Amino acid sequence: MTDWKPLIAAAGAARERSHAPYSGFGVGAAILMDDGSLHAGCNIENRSYGATLCAERMALGAGLAAGGQRPRAVAVVADASPPARPCGMCLQVLSELGDPGLPILLANLEGEREELRLQDLLPQPFVLPPGRGQRL
Question: Which CATH superfamily is domain 4-49+63-119 in?
Fold first, then answer.
């Protein structure tokens, strides 16, 4: 059972710091890593839309940079009803580092919540064929 309170608080605070001058759609995310550390991120839009950074990947990057190995829970907060879901790019990144049962809580400013698992949002992630891409 995940204690969502600290994740929602961190994601909400990060959302307040988002840089979304083009869409006006601020998003905050918080990730609990396997080492017990909590990391938050916000979306950072860019005039070159493909260079936009999503809150979920920002939070995950902070967790990895701080020494965490795998995400254990993710909370996403945005001003949308129903609560906004992570984009496909973020889900793919989460699928490569988390397990299919990774709990993801979607929340909004009105208190609506939806708890899902990564596999609910991305049932068939992209995987390389056996023997490909593992040369490091």
Answer: Cytidine Deaminase, domain 2 (3.40.140.10)
